[in-house]
Amino acid sequence: MNEKKKRRILVVDDDPSLLETLVDVLGEIGYEVDGVSGPEDAIRRCEESGYDIIILDIRMPGMNGVELSKRISELRSDARIIMMSAYGMDERIAEAMKRGALAFLQKPFDIKEVTELIDTVEKRTILIVDDDTVFSQTMKDLFEEKGCVVDTAAEGSEAIELARRRRYDLILLDMKLPKANGLEVYLSLKEIAPYPAVIMMTAYDECEELAKEAVKRNAYTYLKKPFDIDELLSIAHEIFRQQREGGVVKPS
User: Fold this and answer.
1) pLDDT of residue 4
2) Domain span at residue 11?
3) 106 to each of 13, 93, 114, 220, how far by Cα in Å?
4) What is the predicted pLDDT for the residue at 247?
5) Where, per the database record, does this protein carry 4-aspartylphosphate (predicted)?
6) Tens of pLDDT along 134-147?
7) Rounded to whole angstroms, how far apart are CA atoms 236 and 252?
């Protein structure tokens, strides 16, 4: 049995056309898929069965998707939830992402977007924020070789938008960015995405105090460029180990 067939998916949407399409297409690919049109049915299904992934719409009658995601998480603490909406990112979706939803899909979306998200749920997700594109690509290649899913951003606003739409396990954040320094970007990121461990990076002596301030404000650590790749990989490995075991403890 392949990995796709092992995964059980619940789709929750009051749009019968989209619900039928997602259930049929994902089923044809090889996933085990159930579909329900309302929150109460979704809760009942989650009480009865364990699902690996739950894809749910934000706007539904009776209970919105954020409240539903909260109820599901109370029933299944390991639930992996993907939010979707035709109305764009709003405060409710941002709240769901803060509570641990994996990702947000903007309707209409290509089915490939859904399958790519599903295929990466078991992988560690990393965001690299640096305006040095050569460095970012080097780090991206390094972590992708280790089986991680990696996104890159060249400035703070781009990083914030990405963090609104996907839950990351680890963020590598450079201190010197266009328009805003790394500390400012870090504080903005933590407001919308408190979960990821953040490693600050800098090549400049004058930025070290800001990096230390970020660590005081709960960034995991900071690294001075150029740093040893093995050291970075060791830190990342320790972060991922702690996340698997329930929580990250900063080094003293």
Assistant:
1) 47
2) 3-119
3) 14, 11, 11, 31
4) 79
5) 57, 174
6) 999 999 999 999 99
7) 16
Q: Which residues pair with 223 in a beta bridge?
A: 201
Enter the pTM of the model. 0.76
Cα separation of the two ends of the chain: 45
Q: Give, in order, the Cα–Cα distances in Å from 98 to each of 69, 115, 128, 190, 225.
A: 12, 23, 19, 9, 30
Q: Which of 86, 136, 123 is nearest to 107 (CA)?
A: 86
Q: Are residues 137 and 235 in the same domain?
A: yes
CATH at residue 187? 3.40.50.2300
Residues 167, 223, single domain; the answer is yes
Q: How far is CA 97 from CA 145, 146, 153, 176, 186, in A?
A: 27, 26, 19, 27, 17
Q: Are residues 105 and 133 in the same domain?
A: no
Out of 64, 96, 119, a domain closes at 119
Q: Report CA torsion sign: 35, 96, 179, 201.
A: negative
Q: How many domains does the chain have?
A: 2
Of 102, 119, 136, the one marking the end of a domain is 119
Per-residue CA distances from 165 to 23, 26, 83 (Å)? 23, 22, 9
